[in-house]
Task: structure prediction
Amino acid sequence: MREYVDFLGSQPPYDALDSADLDALARTVEVEYFTAGARIVEAGEAPLDHFFVVRTGEVEVIDRGRVVDLLGPGETFGQISVLSGLPPPLAIRASEDTLCYRFPDPRPVLQHPQRLQFGHYGTLVTRERLARSGLVDQALRAARHQMRPVVWCPADATVGEAASVITEAGQSYALMDRGGAIGIVTDNDFRRAFADGHVDAHSPASVIASFPARSVPAETLVGDAFLTMVESGVHHLVVTGTGDRPVGILRVVDLASAEVRNPLVVRRAIDDATTVEDLAAAAALLPGTWVELYDTGASVMHVAGLMSAVIDAIIRRLVELTDVGDDHVPHRTSWLLLGSVARREPLPKSDVDTGLVWEDLPGTDSPARKLQNWAGRVLDNMERCGLPRCADGANATNPLFARSRTDAVAAATSWITNPTQKNALLLSSMIADSRPVSGMSLGRSVSDAMLATTRSREYLSALLRFTTSRRPPVGFVRNFVVEHSGANRGHLDLKAGGLVPIASLGRWIAVVTGDDRGSTLTRLRRGEAAGLLTADETETLVRAFEYVYGLVLGREIEAIKGSTVATTWVAPNQLDTLTRRYLRESFRAVAEVQNRLESEWVARLP
Result:
């Protein structure tokens, strides 16, 4: 069953399930094998009582005899009929020998079935929209308004013939229809293939094409499409219309200025890295990428989302590439990100807080020492990649943040039930800000268990006092509250005074609602939906967070450009009048929300 859980936990939409629901769903799996050409679903027949997830192989989606889509590993079919109770509208046929996982209706076995946000045949899965105000003015445009025309070449074309088609069309791509499966070949594919010496002009173009091509629906926002490119490491997306047929192509160079290509350059280099040295070379592109994204005028939270995806990829690859050596153990592990990086709100100079959880294997020696040795090498390599470990000790080498699952769950739940113990509020807050980047189900099980523990009013009250102790640095009359001595005399800390109070409120909302997914802005909006915040309070906090994050990001970008040391400390008299005024108003508005919550939170509980 563990294999089922790990596979499903890495695939949308199942990655939105908590560990208990993942385990429950995995217990219902039946494995079915279909030979090439086998009809799995017939259109118009009785409603299905089960759906499938492709494990290996591929299946074709058939509409009135015509193949309209090709589904591969991790993609789902049959769910529309199961959930709607209607006959399946399209037929499904195995295009090659295929292994599938078969599931009954998931709703009776899941505690949170609403988290399974299925899309049409798995291609329209929902995810957090980090690009709401995206790439300059183009972000809120639909893909259909930004796409280029489709260029086709025959499925049996040679490399030379495909190159001629692309050249004559004046584009950088061509699509191929291989029995209804749509692939794409790009100018970059030609360059890589010829550089490797694997093909010549007479080779079939299909050997260098990508099947199936990554696609987005025509109504997808351009900002979201670009984030898809970064996450998947591609430079072209097929835009699909009715029947999921191609109606156009999105190119990365058309979404914003040419400099925006760098996140994809970094991502491709990360994926291609075979050594830590290769990975460090890829990561060396990060500072310039921050600068170029910022200079395009992209919204700052969109920049944060893009760079978070790149940082995630680096950490995952580091875990894969760092030698285990004599510290090998049979235990499965999960690496966790903590803090701002976990919330997808990194800054160029952010350190990376990490945790490590391993599975319990009864009858074996504790692997703690060996795993901490290995974790130390991973963190050393992380710093070689320009990502510093937490200076305050929130690292996977620290026994507080490196535990077996049983130990981690016991500790996390005890912090909820006994909030007066040392550091209980701090540590439970950190778990609420954790996000696994490997061993998804294992990693999520800790925060799932903590949030499933009954949270008493005593705990929630103590956590709120702890949360609102992070006060914006503004006085009762007019001036900012600044340091009066030491190296930062006359300065205020924009991060500690501006970002932390709002992020802490978002984290408190996550604990109260029992849902720790998403960024600070997502949590704030979830708080509004739950009645913990008013619409005005939510708007105030969201705008203040975006504004202060933008100020801090701008200062760090200037430090990169000037090769100076970045700092979140600023002297108010160094800010222009309008910035000082807006910052002061933002701080006061946040403080007012804190005050209202302190006096009204019980009445606002869901």
Remarks:
- Residues 452 and 466 are 21 Å apart (CA to CA).
